[in-house]
Design a protein that fits this description.
3-stranded antiparallel β-sheet, single chain, 145 residues, two-stranded parallel ribbon, 5 helices, 5 strands
């Protein structure tokens, strides 16, 4: 197993574990490496120091991950996603166009969700349109190692 420090094109930083560097390259090329915060597949490896086994300083430097906290956060993200999917209108890849129309009063005020490219999201934010990424859903069994 190999651990990589990763960063998405929206600057969220996270770690990923892969069977080998070739596994990372393959999954990234197929768009399977996603940011856990925003779902972006524009992910790249970051420079990181190699881990040296057996040093007390190294073991104490890595933060402990509380499994209960992780589970609680995953549950909360799932509840937010479920609420949006059940109560908002899905507009697909017309999200940016429809969000802008709602913002400008040209379309009915309502909650929507859908897909938008990073450049579309950036333009919306720069124009004062309030948008937020939908928490990612659970991975598909076919996408997991």
């Amino acid at each position: 197993m190999i651990k990589y420090a990763l960063r998405c094109d929206r600057t969220h930083e996270f770690e990923g574990w892969f069977g080998s560097s070739a596994d990372y390259d393959d999954q990234a090329a197929r768009g399977l490496v996603e940011c856990p915060v925003c779902g972006s597949t524009g992910v790249s490896k970051q420079i990181m120091a190699p881990a040296v086994a057996g040093t007390k300083a190294q073991r104490s430097a890595e933060p402990a991950v509380d499994p209960k906290m992780r589970e609680m956060m995953m549950t909360a993200m799932g509840e937010v996603r479920r609420h949006v999917e059940e109560n908002f209108d899905y507009v697909g890849d017309a999200f940016a166009k429809e969000a802008r129309a709602i913002h400008e009063g040209k379309s009915e005020e309502r909650g929507i969700y859908g897909e938008a490219s990073p450049s579309e999201v950036k333009a919306l934010v720069e124009d004062g349109v309030k948008v937020a990424p939908l928490p990612p859903g659970p991975p598909k069994k076919t996408d997991v190692n």
